[in-house]
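Let's practice the habit of predicting before peeking. Look at the sequence and jot down your guess about where helices and strands might fall. Then scroll down.
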Amino acid sequence: MRTLRDDQADTLARLRADAEKLERRRRQKREYNHRRAGVKVYPELTPDRLKAFLRYDAFTGNWTWLVQPRKGINIGDVAGRLNATHGRWEVGIDGRRYSASRLAWFYMTGAWPEREVDHKDANSLNNKWKNLRIATRGQNEANKGLTRRNTSGFKGVSWDRSRQLWKAQIGCGGRPRLIGRFKSPEEAHAAYAVELQRFYGQFARLA
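Done guessing? Here is the structure:
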């Protein structure tokens, strides 16, 4: 007898198949447009093709070349460069640049990550395999520290000028969710910490 879980699994499998079909059509359309424009078209990147060009060291998180991709780069050289805008390491292959963490997931598992790849220690340059995990956008955001825009010194806390109180809010479902307003930033942060742990568990980073 079929169960609800069986039906959900079938639905998920169909959705994945539809997404793969759509991606194939998009790729074929891009390739067609590139050929018409005289742009070089590379083969689809597969795990085997990736491993023929590059080596990923799971213990250090570094990428090195197994071939000479172009003049000035030798076999054994470190592959990739820092994208200062996004604060992450990127590796270029076949005319396209990839986030080193997503590429590592593809290298190790043979499949592209269905969601985001989170760095457990919140260091986006630490691409060691043990430091990577799959996360939703909300979980990834929950694992980040203070941003430059923060002026309270406490994550999740800002000054509500209209109420003259400290406001605590948390991202939930892609939208800010108000937790409450408090007399001190410490009180606001304490309330934020409870909600962050409740919603995001192991992904919760308080500072």
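How did you do? The beta strands are 54-56, 63-65, 81-83, 88-93, 96-99, 116-119, 132-135, 157-160, 165-172, 175-182.
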